[in-house]
Design a protein that fits this description.
globular; about 260 residues; Beta-carbonic Anhydrase, Chain A; 11 helices
Length: about 260
């Protein structure tokens, strides 16, 4: 009985995510930003941050009081998965505040089961219209995997290898695509490839994410944050679409959107 109840709750939440607007407690609707509008908001926030014109929105007592009374799904406009690195403070670099961004952080911004589940929650329950897979310069996880793949690795604690093994295909592709790069020269290429790998891993493992993108309700985009100057470089949206198209043709992709 409990499992059936939980399935019903999940199904209703996903259905709401596919409809326009967000249903409030009183039954009315408030418009959430479209995918393009949400991306524009993130870009504008980063521009303010970089140029020293940050407004630090939604960071006062009134916003906290609102957070204590209302659902984040009525306010948050973006889901961001990024690295746990202390140099990547998500809300600050987007000049955002409380209940603005649903943030997922993990070493190497990898997308494995736990992270994909968190993304699904952000898109299908918090009802955000954009997912940003945000890599960053000088990423320690990507650097460690790059060194290991090139034969210069070192012993790691027992739980770290399964955490970062999703990065291995990205490093190998970076090496194959840039044969003239050696040693540390590979790292910037691997950082970008790791973003693309994360998007592919998400689409392979999350039918609901694919459905939301195909329905035009969500955009999944890649970006890289420069820890030395605060600027975000946005990657090609067309490539994200190409990855989705490739995954849709892959018979190994997950097909059942709902848990059993």
């Amino acid at each position: 009985m409990k499992n059936c109840f939980l399935k019903s709750i999940v199904a209703v939440s996903c259905l709401l995510a596919l409809t326009s607007g967000t249903v409030l407690a009183g039954g009315s609707k408030t418009a959430k930003p479209s995918p393009d509008e949400a991306i524009a908001m993130l870009k504008a926030g980063n521009e303010r941050f970089v140029t020293g014109k940050a407004t630090h929105p939604h960071a006062d007592a009134g916003r906290l009081a609102l957070a204590g009374k209302e659902n984040q799904g009525d306010h948050a406009y973006a889901t961001v998965i990024t690295c746990s690195d202390s140099r990547v403070p998500v809300e600050i670099l987007f000049d955002a505040g409380v209940m603005d961004i649903f943030v997922i952080r993990v070493a190497g911004n990898v997308l494995d089961v736990d992270e994909i589940g968190s993304v699904e929650y952000g898109l299908a329950h918090v009802n955000t219209s954009v997912l940003v897979v945000l890599g960053h310069t000088q990423c320690g996880a990507v650097t460690a995997v790059t060194n290991a793949v090139q034969g210069h690795g070192h012993q790691l604690e027992r739980n770290i290898p399964p955490l970062i093994d999703n990065i291995i295909p990205a490093v190998k592709k970076a090496i194959a695509d840039h044969p003239k790069a050696h040693g540390a020269e590979v790292i910037p290429y691997a950082i970008e490839e790791n973003v693309w790998q994360g998007i592919e891993d998400l689409f392979m493992g999350s039918p609901i994410s694919r459905d939301l993108v195909n329905a035009g309700k969500v955009k999944v985009v890649g970006a890289i944050y420069d820890v030395s100057n605060g600027k975000i470089s946005w990657l090609s949206e067309a490539k994200s679409a190409e990855i989705l198209k490739k995954v849709e043709a892959n018979p190994k992709r997950a097909m059942e959107a709902m848990a059993k």
